[in-house]
Amino acid sequence: MPLLEQTRRRLAVLKTASHPRSVGDAWGTKRCGPPASRGSQKAGYVLDRPSRNSSSVRVAMEQQDGSVALQRNSEVNWDEFDAGSYFEHNYASIRADDREILEFLRDELRARREISKNVAVLDIGTGTNLYPLLLTLPWAGSIDAVEYSVGGVSWLRDAITSYGPEWDAYWAVLAENEPWRGVGNPRKRLAEVTSVQQGSIFDLPSDRYDFGSMFFVAESLTEDVEEYRSALHAFLGAVKPGGTIVGAFMENSTGYDVAHRPFPAVPIDEATLRDSLAENVARLVVQHLDIPDDEQLRPGYTGMLIAVGTRT
Ligand SMILES: C[S@@+](CC[C@H](N)C(=O)[O-])C[C@H]1O[C@@H](n2cnc3c(N)ncnc32)[C@H](O)[C@@H]1O
Questions:
Q1: CA-CA to 233 of 20 to 30 Å: which in 33, 108, 209, 273?
Q2: Residues 162-192: pLDDT tens digits?
Q3: Structural domains of the chain, with CATH
Q4: Of 221, 289, 305, which is best to mutate to test ligand 1, by the most ligand atoms within 8 angstroms of its C-beta?
Q5: What residue owns the CA closest to ligand 1's atom 6?
Q6: Do residues 277 and 232 make contact, with C-beta atoms less than 8 angstroms apart?
Q7: What is the pTM of this model?
Q8: pLDDT in tens, 10-24
Q9: d(C-alpha 122, C-alpha 133), whole Å
Q10: Measuring from each residue's beta carbon to the nearest atom of ligand 1, which residues come in under 6 Å?
Q11: Residue nearest to ligand 1 atom 3, measured at CA
């Protein structure tokens, strides 16, 4: 794409970006993210932003002092997040990496026998990914699927009533073993226990949940590493001490497109992730997943990181 056109696109994104919005959130709490800061963490001018699901390029604007403006969560118009397109691209058929994530988490959670029954579960930034919810079904008394974008909330409300056949392949991976096999009808059970809510990670209540999951959210909602840390902190804070946390993160992601619109990411590695979890998570296991063979040549991220632990 010619540089001029890239610059126009970036300007268009900035123009349509929303300012901090007060979502009619589920808990009536206030957004507690840090004040907006324009970063000086990145030097240079043109940033390539291809990712797991994109090969396009976005341009970050150079500031007067030569640093690059980092896009923060409130500067993105999340209502432009095209849920249908995101689902089609990422989850309409099961990918090798998602199968691997499920297998790893299935075996890891089975080994952690302390998770009790009928617990309160949170999945934050659910988007169009139902497998984190399916993962917690054997233990869940209730699941709050909290999503920020209007389109994502609407997609989820439809999907939860009776999810599509695409998700049977994901369930099949889990149902190879107990306790998933014993769930009976997962479609019916998911509809019974799940409540879809619109809300922000920065507005989550403290110490509310026994089990928290977050898949590709804290590092995929901002370009600012401090805001990533703040999002992660808010997620961990929503889980009670002793509760179980599960997280999946893109490694070294430089952003992603959904239906040709660019969305931000913070490039984090395993050391950054471990460091940001260290203070609040015990019994931490982090698993690195390589990029699947059929995507070896696609730039934009270097793998995925899956974390499981106990909130301290
Ligand atoms: C890369 S998608 C991940 C979606 C899904 N969890 C998955 O595994 O594919 C990032 C998600 O974060 C959500 N998001 C963006 N800002 C958010 C915020 N402040 N609070 C909660 N979720 C947010 C987006 O709407 C989107 O669904």
A1: 108
A2: 999 999 999 999 999 999 999 999 999 999 9
A3: 3-311 (3.40.50.150)
A4: 221
A5: 126
A6: yes
A7: 0.83
A8: 433 333 333 222 223
A9: 9
A10: 73, 78, 81, 90, 124-127, 129, 147-149, 152, 200-202, 215-217, 220-221
A11: 216
